[in-house]
Specification:
The complex is a heterodimer of chains A (111) and B (115).
Chain A (H helix, E strand, L loop, with lengths): L8 E5 L4 E6 L7 E8 L6 E6 L4 E2 L4 E4 L5 E6 L8 E9 L12 E6 L1
Parallel strand pairs in A: 1-9
Antiparallel strand pairs in A: 2-7, 3-4, 3-8, 5-6, 6-7, 8-9
Chain B lengths: L4 E3 L2 E4 L5 E6 L6 E7 L6 E7 L2 E5 L6 E5 L5 E5 L8 E8 L4 H4 L2 E2 L3 E5 L1
The chains are: A mainly beta (111), B mainly beta (115).
């Protein structure tokens, strides 16, 4: 079973920030938080990951709470092409652990 | 730089038949994982191959088997197909040691329909 909880759907206006929450209250000390997204009819795409510090890359920012029990993925200026299902996953450090997907959040960016 | 390539993109099979799906990992990647994604669900882990050996396996029956070749490409075989095997089959690759630095790279999948 997935170790994360996400809202099933969210809407966002084009050009505005999209803030996608994820609850992972049972995360253990050596587990990272990963975010992937899946655009319709494509495979999942890696977005970003973090352990306990906030992270930013060219796609998004990841904010992890101090107790690491929840996180927020931020798309600073959402576009129509960001419409997708977003998956939050916890995954162990090192090696190549399997990914356990939940149902994710369907983000719809509206014009 | 080619990413993960999967073939075929679509496939229709009859119940009871056997099917083979193929995957070529991203250049520089040596670990291949397979996932099954039913309509409306998140992907479910089937198994992972590294150094031509099955390293991890999810909760799938023995009808699902695989193989990894010396060039790191991989095949997924499903025997005695059931209607419930209809799904999108995804292949994901990663460099074994550095998975946590870059995440997995997924292919676009093979859509299998069993009739």
């Amino acid at each position: 079973d997935a170790k994360t909880t996400q809202p099933p759907s969210m809407d966002c206006a084009e050009g505005r920030a999209a803030n996608l929450p994820c609850n992972h209250s049972t995360i253990s000390g050596n587990e990272y938080v990963y975010w992937y997204r899946q655009i319709h009819s494509q495979g999942p795409q890696y977005i970003i990951h973090g352990l306990k510090n906030n992270e930013t890359n060219e796609m998004a920012s990841l904010i992890i709470t101090e107790d690491r029990k929840s996180s927020t993925l931020i798309l600073p200026h959402a576009t129509l092409r960001d419409t997708a299902v977003y998956y939050c996953i916890v995954n162990n450090q090192g090696g190549s652990e399997k990914l356990v997907f939940g149902k994710g959040t369907k983000l719809t960016v509206n014009p | 730089d080619a990413g993960v390539t999967q073939s075929p993109t679509h496939l229709i099979k009859t119940r009871g038949q056997q099917v083979t799906l193929r995957c070529s990992p991203k250049s520089g990647h040596d670990t291949v994982s397979w996932y099954q994604q039913a309509l409306g669900q998140g992907p479910q882990f089937i198994f992972q191959y590294y150094e031509e050996e099955e390293r991890q396996r999810g909760n799938f029956p023995d009808r699902f088997s695989g193989h990894q070749f010396p060039n790191y490409s991989s095949e997924l075989n499903v025997n005695a197909l059931l209607l419930g095997d209809s799904a999108l089959y995804l292949c994901a690759s990663s460099p074994e040691i550095r998975q946590n630095l870059y995440g997995y790279t997924f292919g676009s999948g093979t859509r299998l329909t069993v009739v």
